[in-house]
Amino acid sequence: MEGRIPMRDVIEKANVLHEALPYIRRFHGRTFVIKYGGHAMVDERLRDGFARDVALLKYVGINPVVVHGGGPQIDEMLKTMGVVSERIDGLRVTDEATMDVVEMVLGGKVNQEIVSLICNHGGRAVGLSGKDDAFMNARKVDRMRTKKGAEVDPGRVGAMARVNPDILNKLMAGGFIPVVAPVAVDDHGRSLNVNADTVAGHIAAALKAEKLVLMTDIAGVCDAEKTLIPSLTRESIARLRAEGVIAGGMIPKVECALDALAGGVDKVHIIDGRMEHAVLLEIFTDRGIGTEITA
């Protein structure tokens, strides 16, 4: 019959569900923290698919917590305002004017767009930042060193100090999916701009999450021949860093992963967010698609 789906495709769909079943059973009631960023946030198809996947996780009994970035969106807004923004070691130098934009974009536009997309797919999402219940506390970074060796004050840049997970636990217990913007507060209630990977790692540790998933714009951690490494430990990471294989922008991600593991997280996954349904493929299939890091 014209338009009928071939039986082999129907059977393959059933096989996928069977492969996912033991993972769904194993992770039922567990907490996953997902750092959402990169290309997956700007491609419309990927954005919609990610929101659907997060809603699915909740429906099968997993408690997802989404921590998002928003660097490109901040850059675009600053450009329209004629504000020049510099970076040191991947961290944005954040003066008072830039901090206002960071809060407006991350805590407002980007956060609410993610919340809306998840809700459109049947999830019950709630957006918040570290200012809500002051649940994320950070200290101001006073000095950072430029590539030329000069020390500068990076402004309202924060280093995470502690996370009080009470509000997140209450939201999850109520059936909600927390969507967190990476803005923390200092001891005086002033906003601080914090790296989203770092925020995700600290939240995962505070929640004793089963998994921390870091979505990136690369396949995962690769070896010297650019071949994906499916699994790493603390010892193998130290060796690859000494050999210069893990370098550049991957260093803060593996450091974030190791901190999360030290804080009680069971596994950390670095995956390619440019792939459709990347989170589901990593969690619910035998092979996965990225790099998993274990203690």
Give a description of the structure:
The protein has 295 residues and is α/β, with parallel strands linked by helices. The protein has one domain: 3-Layer(aba) Sandwich (Carbamate kinase). Helix content is 41%, strand content 22%. It has 9 helices and 16 strands. The chain has helices at 7-27, 44-59, 71-80, 96-120, 166-173, 196-207, 234-242, 250-262, 278-284; strands at residues 31-36, 63-68, 87-88, 91-92, 125-129, 136-140, 144-145, 151-152, 158-163, 177-181, 183-185, 191-193, 211-216, 231-233, 267-272, 291-294. It has an 8-stranded mixed β-sheet with strand order 5-10-2-1-13-15-16-14, with helices on both faces. The chain has a two-stranded antiparallel sheet with strand order 3-4. Strands 6-9 form a two-stranded antiparallel sheet. β11 (183-185) and β12 (191-193) form a beta hairpin. α2 (44-59) crosses α4 (96-120) and α3 (71-80) crosses α4. The longest helix is centred in the middle third of the chain and has 25 residues, at 96-120. The protein is globular. The termini are far apart. The mean pLDDT is 91.
Number of strands: 16
CATH superfamily caption: Acetylglutamate kinase-like
Return the structural class.
Answer: alpha/beta
Distance between the first and last residues' Cα:
53 Å
Secondary structure blueprint with pairings:
Layout: H1 7-27, E1 31-36, H2 44-59, E2 63-68, H3 71-80, E3 87-88, E4 91-92, H4 96-120, E5 125-129, E6 136-140, E7 144-145, E8 151-152, E9 158-163, H5 166-173, E10 177-181, E11 183-185, E12 191-193, H6 196-207, E13 211-216, E14 231-233, H7 234-242, H8 250-262, E15 267-272, H9 278-284, E16 291-294
Helix pairs in contact: 2-4, 3-4, 6-8
